[in-house]
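ok, trying the design again with the full structure, not the truncated one.
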């Protein structure tokens, strides 16, 4: 990749002057970034993966210290003689007034009875200017199944800053480093494992809102807003109100969802009454239910409008059955004779007779069963093709104590529907 901007040209020049990392940095990574194992066989004989010495341990704890090298080891009950770990770690440096994060692939090989062997190879470097500009130099990536497979015969050169490089650079950072004066001025004193270091540095140098969060030490909000840029844009004014009131939500994701729900409901998202709730979860659930009801009402209105367009076809196919009433001493069952009747039936019985557009089914008749006082009991679907009831549902699609009685009553009068069809 050819350097085009002045920043990329300065990165290329600085890239050539970087030297190999120190051995103490590799030793730190070996000690802190990978698990240290002890091989244990069936006779409780343990072999330290670090120094290769053996000892007897029959306890149940999973972590012990080697009596020889004093390393904290994880007991591994296995017949394997070789275990290999790979991970990434980074080092931070400053060169030519540019912050650079150097990412290394660490390979540690444990062999039973031998000292561990380690290898550290640099794969990429991410560069940040004091103005928040980003660039990347890395080895060439290989084609294949693994996206972080690199060609070790290639050179670390200027390349496109890809998602792969950003992903592998979110790693353990060697604790002794220098930071740009501009980063320290904007509140960055140390690197936290909670956020991506490069994303944090770029945001601190380009976005004063992130600088505010960093200087307030609100790491919960900082982490959330770095990972969800749209929430920062939408909720920042509300966050400032909450910040002035000393309100710090424990669950930033739920709080941001609450702000978006309030906005959908037309509430003032700068009002402390709404943005600083005492019970965050209860308020979130309350406004979520309101939004769901409003959205459902809107969908029902759209469907009702569409249903009105199909009303002529509905009357053409179903009007011949209107007026059929089936009754006994306690129950009266009548045909639903309008689109509005379907909508009311679905709302009262809490099922999908309207939302699933049962009024468009040409070979089905929908009836409503109710008692003598007019209380709805069940909704019945009668098939003209089969000449029988194919389903009968009460509130929330449940069966009532009258279910069998209703089904038998309609099936007994099935001839009335067949006669109406024949004479139409």
């Amino acid at each position: 990749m050819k350097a085009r901007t002045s920043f990329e040209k300065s990165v290329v020049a600085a890239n050539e002057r970087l030297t190999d990392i120190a051995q103490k940095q590799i030793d730190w990574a070996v000690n802190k970034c990978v698990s240290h194992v002890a091989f244990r066989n069936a006779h409780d004989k343990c072999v330290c993966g670090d120094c290769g010495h053996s000892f007897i341990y029959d306890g149940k704890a999973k972590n012990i210290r080697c009596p020889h090298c004093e390393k904290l080891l994880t007991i591994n009950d296995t017949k394997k003689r070789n275990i290999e770990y790979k991970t990434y770690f980074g080092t931070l440096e400053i060169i030519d007034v540019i912050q650079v994060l150097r990412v290394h692939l660490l390979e540690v090989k444990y062999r039973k009875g031998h000292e561990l062997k380690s290898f550290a190879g640099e794969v990429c470097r991410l560069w940040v200017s004091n103005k928040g500009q980003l660039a990347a130099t890395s080895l060439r990536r290989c084609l294949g199944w693994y996206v972080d497979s690199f060609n070790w015969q290639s050179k670390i050169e200027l390349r496109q800053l890809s998602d792969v490089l950003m992903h592998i650079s979110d790693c353990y950072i060697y604790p002794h480093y220098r930071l740009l004066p501009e980063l320290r001025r904007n509140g960055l004193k140390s690197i936290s494992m909670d956020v991506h270091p490069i994303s944090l540095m770029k945001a601190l140098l380009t976005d004063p809102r992130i600088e505010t969060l960093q200087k307030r030490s609100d790491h919960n909000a900082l982490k959330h807003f770095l990972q969800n840029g749209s929430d920062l844009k939408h909720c920042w004014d509300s966050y400032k109100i909450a910040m002035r009131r000393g309100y710090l939500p424990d669950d930033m994701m739920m709080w941001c969802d609450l702000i978006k729900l309030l906005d959908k409901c037309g509430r003032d998202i700068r009002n402390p009454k709404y943005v600083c709730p005492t019970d965050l979860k209860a308020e979130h659930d309350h406004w979520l239910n309101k939004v769901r009801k409003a959205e459902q009402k809107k969908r029902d209105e759209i469907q009702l409008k569409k249903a009105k367009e199909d009303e002529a076809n509905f009357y053409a196919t179903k009007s011949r059955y209107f007026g059929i009433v089936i009754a006994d001493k306690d129950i009266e069952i009548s045909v639903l004779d309008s689109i509005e009747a379907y909508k009311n039936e679905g709302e009262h019985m809490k099922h999908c007779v309207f939302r699933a557009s049962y009024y468009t089914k040409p070979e089905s008749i929908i009836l409503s069963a109710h008692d003598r006082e007019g209380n709805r009991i069940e909704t019945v679907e009668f098939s003209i093709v089969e000449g029988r009831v194919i389903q009968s549902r009460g509130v929330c699609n449940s069966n009532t104590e009258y279910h069998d009685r209703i089904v038998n009553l309609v099936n007994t009068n099935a001839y009335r529907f067949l006669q109406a069809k024949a004479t139409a």
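Keeping the full-length input from now on. The first strand starts at residue 37 and ends at 40.
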